[in-house]
Amino acid sequence: MKKAFIFDLDGVIVDTAKYHFLAWQNLATSLEISFSEEQNEQLKGVSRVRSLEKILEWGGKTISEERFTKLMSEKNEEYLNYISRMDTSEILPDVPRILDYLISKEQGVALGSASKNARIILEKVELYDKFHSIVDGTNVSKAKPDPEVFLIGAEALGVSPENCVVFEDSVAGIQAANSANMISIGIGNPSVLHEADYIFKDFTEIKEEFIDTLVTT
Ligand code: B16
Ligand code: MG
After folding, report:
1. Secondary element (H or E) of residue 83
2. For a tag site, which of 36, 85, 111, 154 has the least CB within 10 Å?
3. Is 197 flagged in the annotation as binding?
């Protein structure tokens, strides 16, 4: 039976967290707020609006709505500047192998990302055409851990949630997959992603035989 495999983008397909970090750090510095890589970790899978709210909370700052909007757009401009220089060398190890294997097995392949920039990034790394459906921050009204992004992906592929498998690097994303009643696969650190059904350091650890078991069960 056909299954759907839904991939998060940042931290699963490419490591754009480093670019989010540089842009958020610049913004935080302009507000005299200190911002660490550990704090950036907590912004993984979190929407742009919520990320800025959290940074302001950490710094104990309140700003006007107008300034909030301006800062978000400046942050995104800087982020887009980094993105514009991306190429295929930034695809995380063995992602193309897994995508091509799923396609060869005629499985559904979707993107489920919180990012409003997901389509540009997929084009830059030349993976856009590998996806049957792309659901990103422009298609959802509720951020992860709400399951909306993955449920839209499943519906677009005509596959019921229990026949979907989600690859995620963030805690919020794993929780979203679990509450959608999908199989969750954590990509990254087991101590952070312990709520996932399966956890792998990265795609180099995922063998075709494992994918076969997901396809047939
Ligand atoms: P943007 P994902 C998420 O992508 C990032 O992990 C998160 O750090 C970012 O704030 C969010 O996208 C929104 O991104 O500002 O580009 O709309 O992990 O869900 O693919
Ligand atoms: Mg992610």
Report:
1. helix 65-83
2. 85
3. no
